[in-house]
Sequence to fold (340 residues):
Amino acid sequence: MNEGILGFGESYMDGDWDADDIASLFYKIFVGPAPILRMFMNPWNRFLYYMQFSFFNLQTKEKVYDVAKVHYDLGNEFFENMLDSTMNYTCGYWKDADNLEQAQLAKMNLVAAKLGVKPGMTVLDVGCGFGGMARHLAKNFGATVTAVTISKEQVAYATEVCQGLPVTVKLMDYRDVAGSYDRIVSLGCLEHVGPANYKTFFKTLSRCLKEDGLCLVHCMGNYHTVMPHQEPFSAKYVFPGACLPYYKEVMNGLGDYFLIEDFHNFGNDYGLTSEAWRDNFIKNWPRLKKLDGKKYDERFYRMWTFYLGVAVALYKARKIQLWQIVLSKHGVVGGYRSVR
Fold:
């Protein structure tokens, strides 16, 4: 109890307790009275994380690749058994979707529509993941895409799936990106940037965007003061150095470089996405275990079912959000009309 959610997670990994439905258990905690949530998140740990992110830069160019080594380079076979065929590892859009793949295709089409991507446009994909978005824009919208990621495994995978398309995939930190582009898209990258670097991040995107271009940033976000920048269990076992930005921090970071054309919050859809990932992971676990019983052992299984269950609960309780923010450098002439 003293370790809060980290202690709960580690004791679950050790097999000290069990539950039929992790997501339902934690949903009850997260929607309960504020004092219960505050106690559960552990005030001392919350203070330590506040100090870390307020006074230290945990996402320097030297440290930024750590999350790739721990998480994104786990092995593509792991992600193939958890994600859908598009290999999108960000929130899907479930407005008219009945399954994960439909939601991810809808998300990519939504992004393309919000940006108004047309044949011949140049697009920069910052934090391209496994190349799903880059491939979609090149194949279905005729764009020429430059995609960057900090994961060697993702570079290899994205290069393969984008073969034959006008897509260039690079192993690169966002701070080293150069060039001039009609459109910029960044899905699930801002969470790895950190408060100390938000201005640098948006300054870089502004530098690379043409004067009449559009940029879309898709990221998890936080506006509940009761929630820390970083959930301790995830920080230790899943996403080291990751940081969920607070709304005000994002606004302060982009204020000098962009005008906000559209702000869209569909955080509840991430609960549905995480639920689908959890179901895929559990369904395909016997296959993963056969691939490498030492790497994918019982402790690994319990770690991921706990993490995904907590994620489902956090989004369904609306403690964490998902934002899509459309940006321009000077304002769209005649006004911007978004889509939903």
Observations:
- Strands lie at 122-126, 144-149, 167-171, 181-187, 209-221, 259-265, 321-328.
- The two ends are 42 Å apart (CA to CA).
- The mean pLDDT is 90.
- The longest strand covers residues 209-221.
